[in-house]
Specification:
It is a single chain. The radius of gyration is 19 Å and the shape is globular. It folds into two domains: 198 residues, 3-Layer(aba) Sandwich (Rossmann fold); 101 residues, UDP-galactose 4-epimerase, domain 1. The strands form four sheets. Strands 3-2-1-4-5-6-11 form a seven-stranded parallel beta sheet, sandwiched between helices. The protein has ten helices and 14 strands.
Amino acid sequence: MQSILRKNTILVVGGAGYIGSHMVRHLKDNGISLLVLDDLSSGFADALGDAELIVGDAGDVKLLDFIFTSRHIDAVMHFASFIQVGESVLNPVKYYENNVVKTMTLLGSMARHKVRNFIFSSTASIFGNPIYSEVDESHPQNPINPYGRTKWIVEQLLPDYELAYNLKFVCLRYFNAAGAQPDGSLGERHNPETHLIPLAINAALGRSEPLKIFGSDYPTPDGTCIRDYVHVCDLVAAHLLALKYLRAGNDSICLNLGNQTGYSVKEVLKMVGTVIGEAVPHQIVDRRVGDPAILVANSNLATTILGWQPKYSKLQDIVTHAVAWHRRN
C-alpha cells in the first residue's frame, strides 16, 4: 500500500477560511488526500473537522520547505489572500505584502521542490469597471482598487513561472462568493464581516445594526450596485474540476466563475427579507471607494473547459442556505 508520505496530496493554503474550509470538506468527501496550511488570522480551526492542519504563514520559507520535503504535495490550492476592497484602499501595504509577496514566496518554494500544479483563487475585481455586460475572460483587465491589483499581479506573473519552472496553473476568477452548506453545517464567518448577504441576514435577525448600502446613485435600475452571486459549493466544485484538469496534463488557463445573472443590493435585501420573514433594516450611505457599478460573469469557458455546471444558481437557494447557517450559529 502506498505510504501516506508518498500519496499525492493537495496543500490547501488558507484552508480554514470561508471558501477554503468548504474546499477541504469537498476534497475529503471525494477521498482526496489533503493538508491545510493556515495562520488562523481570519480562519477557524473548528471549520476543518478532522483535516490535518499546520498553523503557519504561507510566507514562511522554512515551513514551506519542510512541508514540501516531508509530504508528497503534487498541487497547491491558494485561498490565503486578504479580500476586503475598502481595507485595501486604506492599507495597500498589507495587501501587497500578503497577496503578492507571500504568494511569490509560495511559488518560489513550489518551484524549488518541483510542485507543478497551482490553483489560484482570483477575482472579478481584476476587470475593474466593465465596458460590456457579461464579462468574459477576454475583457480588458483594469482593476480599480489595490485588492484587485494584487490578484491581477499574481495572474500576470504566473506565465513567467510556467515558462521558467514548468508550473501549470488554473486561475479561477470568482464573482461574488456566497451561501453555505445546504444543511447549514458550514458557512461564512468573517471578522469583521464585509459581505452583503451575511450582513443583511444579521441585520434582519436583529443581531447587528441596520445594514449600510454604499450608494444609491449608480447607473443601475434601482441605483444600487449589481453583482453576480455564486454559491460557495459550486466554487469548490470548480476547484476540484480544475485539479483533475491539471493532473491530466492540460494547459494553464484563467476562467471566470459566476452564474451569469446580476442582482442589485436592494434585490438581495428583498430576497433575504422573504426567506427570513423580516425586512432587512438598512440605511443609505455614501459610495465606497473602489466599487464598480456592475459585475456579471460570462462563465461559458469554465463550462466548456472544465464541464462546470453550477448546482445552486438561484439567489433563493444561496440565501436560504446562508440563513440556515446563521440561524444555527
